[in-house]
TrEMBL record:
It comes from Ornithinimicrobium kibberense. This is 4-diphosphocytidyl-2-C-methyl-D-erythritol kinase. PANTHER family: 4-DIPHOSPHOCYTIDYL-2-C-METHYL-D-ERYTHRITOL KINASE, CHLOROPLASTIC. Residues 74-156 form the GHMP kinase N-terminal domain. Belongs to the GHMP kinase family. IspE subfamily. Residues 326-336 have a biased composition (Gly residues). The gene is ispE. Gene3D superfamilies: 3.30.230.10, GHMP kinase, C-terminal domain. Residues 219-286 form the GHMP kinase C-terminal domain. Residues 311-336 are annotated as: Disordered.
Amino acid sequence: MSPGGSTEAVTVRVPGKINLELVVGPLREDGYHELSTVFHAVSVYDRVTVQPASRWSVHVTGPFADRVPTGPDNLALQAARALARRRSRRAGSGPVRIDIDKQIPVAGGMAGGSADAAATLVACRELWAMDHVDQDTLEGVAAGLGSDVPFLLRGGTAIGSGRGEQVTPVLARGELHWVLWVGEGLGLSTPEVYAECDRLRAEAGSTDLPVPQPSGELMAALRRMETDEVAAALRNDLQAAAVSLQPLLGEVLDTGLELGARAGIVSGSGPTVAFLVGSQAEAIDLSVGLAANGPTGDITRVVGPVPGAQVVQHHRTPSPPPPGPVRGGPLGPVHG
Ligand SMILES: C[C@@](CO)(OP(=O)(O)O)[C@H](O)COP(=O)(O)OP(=O)(O)OC[C@H]1O[C@@H](n2ccc(N)nc2=O)[C@H](O)[C@@H]1O
Ligand SMILES: Nc1ncnc2c1ncn2[C@@H]1O[C@H](COP(=O)(O)OP(=O)(O)O)[C@@H](O)[C@H]1O
């Protein structure tokens, strides 16, 4: 509590991502695959608000709220606790209430859970005035939460190596236009898609895999931000596995290409499909065509790259939660 009795709250906005390239290398001993990926943050955002509270809790609103766990499995809650463990005793160890306005599709290959975790780290660092926690330290905490979390702290377009957690920004000017197709009630589990990729590779006898590298073609295309060059260089080694588990995605990809998309790609482990188009006008045409002719799904127009998790409000008196059904509730005390 501040001297005036009002409670401070911090709101952070965080984007989802797609992968412009996902080269999957050998399975490591720790159960992860060696990766080279090119992350690209796009303009669909969750908003995460944290404020001091008497108990740890997480509350979710928005179209995908009913698919988000509100118990200890919630990645945002795990992020807050992970950062709380780094606070000095003097600063106190009071819990927080976390409110998530969820607009990023859940289990869609857009790293929504990772985005919420990144947003929570940024929000809690601000709320707890942890000025000594620099970006590198925050990225270290982020990597412990999931392979995609460090990228969502930065956003933009960046290469992810290792298991995806080592992030290096890519020089990219300008903007790309995308149309996203998200199947209602679909959702693919990331470990299952990686396992299906291994299975398909073993079946095809392709087991002797080199250490993955980013492609020169994609880097050059991004430097020029030339839509057709980027279109030609998109690659996702998990796509065949995602289509094998969810064959409808093949139909979606074919429909988008027939309707004039420059390229179509499954985002990460799927099942979101991202279509690259040349302009906002092309994006509108494609979304109308997909809505009329494609398999049932939500269609969203986005642009990328956009920045990662950013504080958008730092308020003494928190605004009331947005209208609509709220899921979640208090959790028991947590000793971090
Ligand atoms: C596929 C990608 C592409 O960006 O994202 P999504 O499409 O799920 O968002 C990522 O590699 C997902 O990253 P993230 O969702 O953070 O995964 P993690 O929590 O670290 O790992 C979940 C599980 O995915 C598998 N996994 C993940 C990363 C990796 N390099 N190799 C793996 O094999 C492992 O089975 C692991 O137990
Ligand atoms: N804050 C959160 N938002 C979304 N999903 C979460 C969150 N915390 C945990 N999860 C879990 O993570 C799983 C993966 O969700 P998500 O990160 O949206 O997808 P993906 O890994 O495909 O990018 C979900 O099925 C959900 O159970």
